[in-house]
Design goal:
The complex is a heterodimer. Chain A is α+β, with helices and mostly antiparallel strands. In chain A, 30% of the residues lie in helices and 29% in strands. The longest helix of chain A is centred in the middle third of the chain and has 23 residues, at 82-104. The N and C termini of chain A lie far apart (53 Å). By secondary structure, chain B is an alpha/beta fold. Chain B is built from 8 helices and 21 strands. Chain B has helices at 10-14, 47-60, 144-155, 179-185, 199-204, 221-226, 249-271, 358-375; strands at 2-3, 30-31, 34-35, 65-66, 71-77, 80-85, 88-92, 95-97, 104-105, 119-121, 136-140, 160-163, 173-174, 177-178, 230-232, 235-239, 242-245, 292-294, 300-305, 309-310, 339-341. In chain B, the strands form 8 sheets. A 5-stranded parallel β-sheet of chain B has the order 10-19-11-12-15. Chain B is globular and about 65 Å long. The chains are: A alpha+beta, B alpha/beta. The interface between A and B is medium-sized, with 18 and 18 residues. Chain B: Keywords: Oxidoreductase. Chain B: One of its GO terms (molecular function) is flavin adenine dinucleotide binding. Chain B: It comes from Rhizocola hellebori.
Chain lengths: 181, 376
């Protein structure tokens, strides 16, 4: 149990869960991104600061993310499309979950790879009101090499989905309010 | 003395639907010195039979029951308690809260956004399909209550949509024996509260997808799909008159299937059985589960909230509830001296909330209570 080392400090997470039981207000986080239009459908979004544990927090460095659209959309393709960022978020969240759950269950991981595919009918964003704008469905396929049975690996992946913020955000509705300052 | 707000077996008389039978087989339905003696040990008691069983137990053990006495307040008084009732005050040195975990149906707040044209039921108000409006029915929740009601409403000819969150899948029988025989014999049900890794989670576990029928049929989600019941994800929101369902249905199936297999592996290991057990088909995922239902379209006219129950502690004037309203106790021992609980989920053992599960818990709790009294 104690020999597995996936580089996740599970004890700190368990301690945090315990501490936040009596301090639910400290558990309220606000994540932020700041975006700026460049030209065409190209924008640049920066992420550094967030709020949590009752105070302003900051990542060690600022992350700058560009988004654009591909040439088949008659754009310049300076970067990936916004909807692809959802796949980035989902894959990285589920992978983090697999590593954390494996650590908690004493399972040593050797490699965790996944392929994420989102099926998208683009007629929706082009104005066909009978077609939805977003993904019709998303498929994630994990390939995991670990000291565990197939059943244990399937359980890791299932538990990872159960505790994933991005999986929840994609599978359940969220109130979104967009305003003009 | 035992205080009962109504009659003996009151909740079995007034808070159950017509077709309900116990989930435990007759031979397992036992109380100290009192067990089933009829011709069908593998059957499941109807509500009428349960009421007779408990009535009879109350009579033979000569429990000092005062019926039609509702407790309106329990509070500290001197070194004991003051129990206020509709029939006067009672002072006592010790008290046991045995009012159960299922006093009120737990209906999610999103029910408030359901259009008023729909008729809504909780399991307390639901009697049977004959009392429902015609037309489609949305059943929310897939524990024992949800799967049983969905099945009987479907059999009445109505279209049924079942919204499924996390659930516990069980076959009615395994290797020819009742699955609850396995829970009992293999020792799973005797697992103690202080041996369980995540006790809070064990106490929250929904009731298993079981039904007691003479045919001993399995009522899992595959059985419901085969009856023509449409499965959707967990009801996540009601917005602008539309019910929105989670797109995570596949994973709640995977979680339940994996958990079922682990349990059956536990049974096999206990039985020392090397041969492969009965395999169970994975829960079949609908090709394209719906994510929305327009509640104003008339497709469903009724919603049944099979979303669980919660205890009612409004009468408890003591600081013994946690931030989420659960009674804080350690194996039934409440921090306030002389106060105890019985009949709550995994109170001391996994079997705590089953009828036969009360004996061992009661013995342990009463032993503590007697020592407390003796020490004064």
């Amino acid at each position: 149990m104690t020999t597995a080392d996936n580089g996740v400090n599970v004890q700190a997470l368990l301690d945090a869960r315990e501490a936040l039981k009596n301090a639910p207000e400290a558990a309220q986080f606000t994540w932020r991104a700041t975006s700026k239009w460049q030209k065409g459908v190209h924008s640049t979004t920066t992420v550094q600061n967030f709020f949590g544990l009752g105070q302003e927090q900051s990542h060690k460095t600022e992350t700058v993310l560009d988004a654009d659209h591909p040439e088949v959309f008659a754009a310049e393709d300076n970067a990936i499309t916004p909807i692809e960022y959802l796949l980035v978020g989902l894959a990285s969240c589920l992978t983090a979950g697999v590593a954390s759950v494996a650590q908690n269950r004493g399972i040593q991981l050797r490699s965790v790879e996944s392929v994420v595919e989102g099926n998208h009918d683009i007629r929706g964003i082009l104005g066909d009101t009978d077609v939805r704008n977003g993904y019709n469905d998303i498929k994630v396929t994990f390939t995991i090499d670990a000291d565990a049975s197939k059943q244990e690996i399937e359980a890791l992946v299932a538990q990872s989905q159960k505790r994933s913020a991005v999986f929840d955000a994609l599978t359940n509705p969220t109130n979104v309010s967009v305003e003009v300052a | 003395m035992v205080l009962e707000r109504g009659e003996v077996a009151n909740s079995w008389r007034r808070e159950r639907w017509e077709s309900l039978r116990l989930l435990t087989p007759n031979w397992q339905t036992r109380l100290p010195g009192h067990h089933y003696e009829g011709p069908d040990p593998d059957g499941y008691m109807t509500m009428g039979e349960v009421i007779k069983f408990i009535d009879h137990f109350a009579a033979v053990c000569r429990a000092p029951v005062r019926t039609s006495v509702a407790v309106t307040s329990l509070r500290r008084a001197d070194d004991g308690y003051l129990v206020a009732t509709n029939d006067g005050d009672i002072r006592c040195r010790t008290a046991i809260i045995a009012s159960g975990a299922c006093n009120l149906p737990a209906v999610p707040a999103l029910a408030e956004a359901v259009p008023s044209a729909l008729t809504q039921f909780t399991p307390f108000g639901y009697q049977g399909p004959a009392h429902l409006p015609d037309g489609g029915v949305l059943v929310v929740g897939a524990s024992a209550t949800g799967v049983q009601l969905a099945a009987e409403i479907r059999r009445s000819g109505r279209p049924v949509i079942l919204s499924v969150g996390e659930h516990v899948r069980l076959p009615r029988t395994y290797r020819g024996r009742d699955v609850l025989w396995w829970m009992d014999s293999s020792g799973v049900w005797d697992q103690r509260h202080d041996e369980i890794d995540d006790l809070a989670r064990a106490r929250r576990l929904p009731s298993p997808q079981l039904v007691g029928t003479p045919e001993r049929t399995t009522l899992d989600l595959n059985a419901l799909s085969a009856m023509g019941i449409e499965l959707t994800g967990r009801l996540a929101a009601v917005r602008d008159g539309r019910a929105l369902f989670s797109g995570g249905l596949r994973n709640v199936f995977a979680l339940a299937d994996l958990k079922l297999q682990r349990l059956l592996d536990t049974f096999d290991a206990w039985a020392g059985s090397a041969e492969a057990g009965e395999g169970f088909e994975p829960t079949l995922v609908p090709a394209s589960p719906r994510l929305q239902l327009d509640l104003r379209s008339g497709e469903v006219r009724t919603i049944v909230w099979a979303t669980g129950f919660r205890p009612d502690y409004r009468w408890l004037d003591l600081p013994v509830l946690d931030a989420k309203g659960h009674l804080q106790h350690d194996g039934g021992v409440v921090a306030t001296p002389g106060l105890y609980a019985l009949g709550l989920p995994v109170l001391r053992r996994r079997k705590s909330t089953f009828i036969h599960g009360i004996s061992d818990d009661a013995r342990d709790v009463i032993e503590h209570l007697a020592q407390t009294l003796a020490a004064r």
